[in-house]
Amino acid sequence: MSAAAPARRGPLEGVLWTLFAMGGARLITLAGLAVLARLLAPEDFGLVAFGLVYVTYATTVGDLGTGAALIYWPNRREEAAQVTFAANVVVGIAWLLVTWLAADAVAAFFRSPSGGSILVALAWTFPIQALGATHEALCRKSLRFRAWFVPETGFAGVKAAVSIAFALAGFGVWSLVWGQLAGQAARTVLFWTVVPWRPARRMPWDLVRPMCGYGSHIVVLNVLSAIVHHVDLLIVGRFFGAAALGLYQMAAKLPEMSITLVVRAVSHVLFPTLSTLAASGRSAKDTYLLSLGGVALVAVPGAVVLVVLAEPLVATAFGPAWLPASPVVQALAICGCLRAFGSNAGDLLKASGRPGALSALAVVKAVLLVPVLIWAGQRTDMTGVALASAAVTAVTASMSLVVACRISRTPVADVLGALRPGMIAGFMVAAVLAAWMPLVSGLPVLARLVSALGVASLAGLAAVRMTSPAIWAVLVQSRRLAARGGRPDLAGAGTP
What pLDDT score was predicted for residue 272? Predict the structure, then answer.
């Protein structure tokens, strides 16, 4: 085995375990939504969605950026974790109190007065999540992603089970609220179980200022990232109401559970891996290009599948009542694919110690995106908002690629070369589906969908085998890992 192989195995295995965790969680979530979509109305999902949008924006402040600082920090890990834990708890309690006071005003912004009480209940998410955030950061810092498997899937399983149980009991929209809180509590408890770090009484005050200094850039970045990634939900909820927001949010689940899943998995591993390489003085170029190529190989074919099969996917997953969400699925699939191309640039900038540059890039993105989406909300419908988001993302993703090339000193030709296999795979999947769908037009919806997904998967795998031997090796490793049982080794995930 070459000297480079061991260095590469860690990140690749981390991506695989993160994909297992996120993929398992998303499958559980999708199964739960398939049941809940038939028990609850779109407006119920919309009422909870606006509360979760608020929670998402508030948690961008979260730990004041000390979680990212903990992952980046090269030494004094135990003391850095103490700073992160204290920041999490203080800010979590603060947001709980602020939300109690602001709940009615937030509900009025979304023109949903009944949502105030829902937001008050969801506010308990802040302290519950804060208690486990440091343990999650320690998992990522130590690249112990097998330990991360249990809390992630536990969250999805408990959330789905509790939500369905309460929905069957007739609790309506509140079934989603109690499911969210129960799932978050389970996630925190499980993180404390698999990561043995415990907070101490002594606070390393000398680390507070430098960690918060690094983290301040991350906070700005997180706020701007939340604007870029979630402002469409704000616009839809504000202009079109809770029912439309419920449809839009459900449409977003399909790209989120496919394209975004892989992007997040790679990002979870890429940032700590690149940070380790930067601390040791080694080049991050090869790791960046490998991750970019892997993301493209999933994002492009995945977007093609969602665009072509949007209607049967929505009808099968959520039921015929949700078919108005199909055009939104198509637009958001394109948006997610474009966003995936620029996603890894952020990890590269954070790992290189330049979060300020990343914040500046995020400001430009927000300045471009927000006015366009407001215009789309005033002039079009929820599908128009999604299409406008995709158009702006095409521009901002190109900007991210250019910045990544300059920071990593990577020639543009190398980036295009990393993206080429994904483009080829997308064209192959599109061609196969175009030829296949007329052949099965007379079959029932479920049969058409299953057969189409099968031939699309075969076409995608054939493209990977032909164009990207390195990514194919990752898939082979994934199959071997699954053959060994696919179980996390918690004994090896103990001390961070």
Answer: 54
pLDDT > 90? residue 412: no
Token pair in block for residue 396? 């901002």
Q: Choose among 244, 181, 157, 176: nearest CA to 37.
A: 176
Give the total residue count for the chain.
Answer: 496
What's the CA gap between 30 and 316, in Å, rounded?
Answer: 11
Q: Please tell me the distance from the alpha carbon of residue 6 to that of residue 24, in angstroms, as a whole number.
A: 27
Q: What is the b/e burial string over 86-95, where b = at least 16 CB atoms within 10 angstroms of the residue's CB?
A: bbbbebbeeb
Residue with tokens 């009484």: 201
Q: Which residues contact 336 (CB under 8 A, 6 or more apart)?
A: 255, 256, 259, 260, 263, 299, 302, 303
Q: Can you tell me the distance from the alpha carbon of 286 to that of 303, in angstroms, rounded to the nearest whole number?
A: 26
Return the sign of the alpha-carbon dihedral for residues 435, 436, 437, 443. positive
Which is nearest to 361 in space by CA: 254, 190, 217, 174?
217
Nearest to 218 by CA among 96, 357, 343: 357
189/151 Cα distance (integer angstroms)? 8
CA distances, 220 to each of 67, 87, 260, 291, 362 (Å): 14, 16, 22, 25, 9
The whole-angstrom separation of Cα 260 and Cα 180 is: 20
Taking the CA atoms of 162, 166, 168 and 172 in sequence, report the sign of the dihedral they define.
negative
Question: Are 267 and 19 within 8 A, CB to CB?
Answer: no
Q: What is the pLDDT of residues 445-462, one digit of tens each?
A: 889 999 999 999 899 888
122-136 tens-digit pLDDT: 999 999 999 988 888
